[in-house]
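> example.struct
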């Protein structure tokens, strides 16, 4: 009895190996491997990545443009022309840069090797977000090969510095003539992976504030005994206590909201404490750096006033500096009054794709796009995938990657086929400011 069982299981094993090998040699997988192998760590020379995209654009005979608003920070624009270039276009955005990765941090394989083991590709950028760039390209290439004519122009844009805050990429690009020429109607940007069957669809990003609070006090010999109210550390303790009390209040909201909706709470983290010169000297100053992501209904002016009050109460001689102070970006309307939402959600429904509209805990380039007045969605088709963006051993199941390509085919075809008359001239009618 046991004999046939072994034969069957050996056959299944062999079949799985054959399937895995076939998937690994899929041209789209090879392209992703080649792209991940280009080390585009932030501030690296992006020339090889630009050359990679030029080669792909040339292979399809597509207009290819590099916009370099800041030297060393190229923005790639690839045009897939629709039949009516006079109406607004679809912008498929992604970023070329990735966060640093070092083998010695515990990577199973070199982070820029794109090594595939058991059907899973390991490498920096496999989730964030080189997979999406290749999926956009492959989806458009297949639509073209299948003879599908899109009504609207589709642009692939590839940014150089999303991970650094977009100061040299998306932010100036949105102000440029080159961007105006694209006549964008809607932008797609990155989403995230979660280990759930649904795919998150971001319609708003949180506001990022990073502040440095510096407390000044008496500097003295370590054997002296000034009161807490006079020392830098005593004042900083007051500041920390106030921020952590607020953090507890927000944490309660966070636990109620769960992982899938970060909109209702403000996250606060004390990420750096600097100060001190010697073990036996009371420091003249100590500084604290907080990273704060404002909940979507928080009024910025009121929140700033609150912070000022906490600091004033903590003691004298305390200074506050904003390292990063973004303003609220509006939410994209997620109802059928927004034709882009309607096209996106109906394409998803047609292919039985469970999507979950939500606000992410972090933020993406899409916040700048919405702030500039354009509706935008963040979406990366990586269901049932552990969240490994910026993590050691960032990796992606190549089956999940390949399934994302027909998903984009459906979504892109639907978005680029919205009739001209269905889209209002005033795109801001598809945006809503939630903290007003
Ligand atoms: Zn990203």
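> example.seq
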């Amino acid at each position: 009895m046991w004999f046939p069982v072994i034969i069957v299981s050996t056959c299944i094993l062999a079949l799985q190996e054959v399937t895995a090998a076939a998937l690994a040699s899929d041209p789209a997988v090879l392209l992703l491997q080649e792209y991940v192998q280009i080390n585009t760590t932030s501030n690296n020379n992006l020339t090889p990545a630009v050359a990679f995209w030029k080669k792909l654009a040339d292979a399809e005979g597509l207009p290819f443009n590099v916009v370099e608003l800041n030297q060393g920070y190229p923005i790639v624009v690839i045009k897939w022309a629709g039949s009516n270039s006079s109406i607004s276009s679809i912008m498929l955005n992604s970023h070329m840069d990735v966060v640093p990765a070092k083998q010695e941090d515990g990577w199973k394989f070199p982070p820029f090797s794109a090594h595939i083991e058991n059907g899973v590709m390991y490498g920096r950028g496999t989730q964030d977000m080189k997979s999406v760039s290749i999926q956009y390209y492959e989806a458009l290439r297949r639509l073209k090969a299948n003879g599908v004519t899109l009504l609207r122009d589709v642009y692939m844009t590839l940014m150089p510095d999303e991970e650094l805050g977009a100061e040299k990429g998306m932010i100036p690009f949105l102000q440029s003539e080159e961007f105006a020429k694209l006549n964008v109607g809607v932008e797609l940007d990155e989403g995230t992976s979660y280990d759930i069957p649904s795919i998150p669809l971001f319609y708003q990003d949180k506001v990022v504030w990073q502040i440095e609070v510096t407390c000044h006090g008496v500097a003295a010999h370590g054997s002296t005994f000034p009161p807490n109210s006079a020392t830098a550390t005593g004042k900083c303790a007051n500041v920390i206590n106030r921020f952590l009390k607020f953090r507890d209040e927000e944490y309660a909201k966070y636990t109620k909201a769960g992982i899938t909706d970060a909109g209702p709470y403000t996250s606060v983290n004390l990420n750096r404490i600097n100060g001190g010169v010697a073990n036996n000297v009371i420091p003249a100053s100590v500084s604290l750096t907080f990273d704060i992501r404002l909940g979507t209904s928080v009024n910025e002016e009121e929140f700033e006033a609150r912070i000022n009050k906490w600091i004033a109460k903590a003691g004298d001689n305390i200074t506050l500096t904003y390292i990063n102070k973004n303003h609220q970006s509006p939410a994209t309307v997620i109802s059928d009054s927004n034709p882009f939402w309607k096209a996106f959600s109906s394409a998803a429904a047609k292919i039985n794709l469970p999507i979950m509209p939500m606000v992410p805990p972090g933020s993406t380039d899409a916040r700048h796009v919405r702030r500039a007045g354009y509706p935008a969605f963040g979406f990366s088709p990586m269901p049932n995938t552990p969240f490994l963006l910026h993590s050691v051993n960032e990796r992606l199941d190549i089956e999940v990657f390949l399934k994302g390509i027909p998903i984009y085919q459906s979504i892109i075809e639907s978005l680029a086929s919205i009739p001209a008359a269905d889209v209002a001239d005033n795109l801001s009618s598809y945006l809503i400011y939630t903290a007003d």
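> remarks
Residues 1-5 have pLDDT under 50 and may be disordered.
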